[in-house]
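Go through this:
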Amino acid sequence: MAPARRDCSGWEMFLPTGCLLLSVLLFHPALAKVCNDRTKHGQDNSWFSRDGENLPIMVLMPMNESALMSSISQGIEPAVQLAIQHIRESRKYSFSLITKIYDTECDNAKGLRAFFDAICYGPKHLMIFGGVCPSVTSIIAESLEGWNLVQLSFAATTPVLADKKKYPNFFRTVPSDNAVNPAVVKFLNYYNWSRVGTLTQDVQRFSEVRNDLTNELEKADIQIADTESFSNDPCVNVKKLKDNDVRIIIGQFDENLASKVFCCAYNLNMFGSKYQWIIPGWYQGNWWEQANTTNCTTKKLLTAMEGYISVDFEPLSARQIKGISGRTPKEYEREYSRELQQKGVEASKFHGFAYDGIWVIAKTLTRVMELLRVKQRQNTYHNFTVDDREVGKMVLDVMNETNFYGVTGQVMFRNGERMGTIKFNQFQEGQEVKVGEYNAIADVLDLINNSIRFQGVEPPKDRTFVRLQRRHINVPLYSILSTITILGMLMAGAFLFFNIKNRNHRLIKMSSPYMNNLIILGGMLSYASIFLFGLDGGFVSDKEFETLCTVRTWILIVGYTTAFGAMFAKTWRVHAIFKNVKMKKKIIKDQKLLIIVGGMLLIDLCILICWQIVDPLKRTVEEYSLEADPQGRDIAIRPFLEHCENTHMTIWLGIVYAYKGLLMLFGCFLAWETRNVSIPALNDSKYIGMSVYNVGIMCIIGAAVSFLTRDQPNVQFCIVALVIIFCSTITLCLVFVPKLITMRTNPDAATQNRRLKFTQNQKKEDSKTSTSVTSVNQANTSRLDGLQTDNHRLRMRITELDKELEEVTMQLQDTPEKTPYIKQNHYPDANNILSIRNFTDGKDGEKSILKNHLEQKPQAQWGSMDPSRINRGPLEDINSPEHIQRRLSLQLPILHHAYLPSIGGVDASCTSPSASPGSSPRHRHMPPSYRVMVSGL
């Protein structure tokens, strides 16, 4: 076998893989017969039947100081010797364990050669103890089944060895790197962290741990927000974690790259109260000083590292319970420290697992020996032998049944894996402090009270919690506008009461009280819609909100059409009458106006019903970009706003706006056309025109501003409410306040005719306007009252003129010399009397008297004589005093008898034109000479 060893030694520099394969082929008993005489247990069965037997144990460790991980082995040997000593002192075992250490130097080829030498040239080993370097351990463990040997490791933590199909004969007293994953999941669940990210160094050891952690997280229903791997520079990957809003970061990297990771975290501000780092806990002490190869200072690193949680297996149990050795962990640790001082070596973190491992071997061999003795006693032929395969199978079974309490805690295997204790440390003020531990056997996480210090007032959040915040209407704003709305409704109610109470009054009756009632009703509906516009999801449920969407739309549209439709109808009637070019009688009754308003409402109902059936309004939620919490909490605010929308919202709004816009344009046109109308019969047409203008302008402004402030509910509601309040209030006030003022200050204003005042540019339309007044009077239901009012006014004027005529008569009788005065001053009054007589002749006189009153031209004055008549005599001039005296003496009695009945004098039926005027009580003071003169004529 020596040449084989020399050949392998020669290849290891150039072909290490080939050497490994060759070694496996040479050592596998199925492929080669090597050291046959020294590897069969069946040739010598006395080891289990004799007391005091020395049982050799193969120990594989890197002992060369120049080899990797040799420091671990140097601190392990004192613990192994101490365990063997304690086993011997316990006197519970009938054998003595002897360890033979073989140096693997953490090299695959040298490790295989050491194993081969132990098999071929060493004593017959019942078990293999050791395995520090993962690569060497995995190669040897894979071939153990062929040798019927069981290996127990105390330091190999690589997760690869957990594959029992590939390594069925491998056990370890130290938990694997994967053993921390259930503890991490338990820790995450404790703080309700359900969203994490991983940052892994691109090495097989860490990749395997991450893969196993991924499976554990999926089982626990914990979301993995991002998985990042890096080789040298982790800053790019750390930045990605931040961009993905990862708050809880589970890292798998060695201490050399840990300093780079925390330097990147410092530069990216990924530390403090919003972040929690969880990293491996097997780093050497003060690793940040030894492994700092970054541009960050130690102070910056310590700032970024503050509060991180490290997870690792517990090297010694924290429970001071006496174990299988009769010592507590503290007592054992003191003895171990004394051994280290004597030998002058450094401690190893795996010494407790090595110590318990020797006890596992001792208990296993004791149990196997008991089983073999039982079988030997049961053998009747007394020639009992056992082969390697049977012994190997028995060792495996006994190992899986191991259960005792050692210095590292309860020692128990599950599928060859140690169910140990995992500890949690936290970096606090420059040092790691233990904050809790996880018992894998009981699956219990035990955290030390108040030991974990988070940099915030509470544990970090596992994400930026997005708190949905409804953009709702402020209650004070809603209260203020609601109060104003209530006042407006009370005002409308007062107007309605006034309109109904005085509906038979001439002033109210001439302004169409039924139309006024519709205006008030529409205003109150518009007011009511304000209450519904102010309700959102903060006051009502989602289903009720959808109902409100429909109700408030219907109320506003119907209220608008009712109020302003009535105003448009009234304005249209004024326009139709005053633009009647043919001057025909045009009577437009209120029933026709009601039909017009009903037609408008019918169109609205058709649109609304189709809208509701085809594409009803639904509650939709619009979310906006994240905003920082104004109170500085670790949350983000995502505002959302509820809208009433449907699939084809633009089309339906276009239909409604088009229809209402046409009505508004038509109303503005009518208001402009009738802007100069100011007559008693239509005393509110001017105010209705003003209302139409105001409403049109406010609706345009309100719709535009409301659309632009769609994402600001308070502003939108305020504008919509103010537009509705302003339009409704100004309309009602313009229609009813003048009536209230007139009713209070001048109740008879409706009976007083006011002259239409026109500029010189309007004189050409005087005749048309006068005729239009007559047409309006005929169209109005109170036309007769208007005529009676004019008659009363004219009677008063006749009385005044009668007095003047009496004075003229007296002057003519007593002082004839005052004739020029009469000529110049009283002849027009006489003509007025004659004209007034014509007014009573019939209905045709109505037009004549008004027309003559407005259009009469100045008559020739008596004093203006024709020059051709200057030389004529008094008898030849018809305007001579004699002729005037005769005409007056003849006309005055006739006029008195004709108009005394109309002014309250003597009844025309009981008198005659030839009767003496002296019979009238009002003319008894006339002298007798006057009566004689009349009789003589």
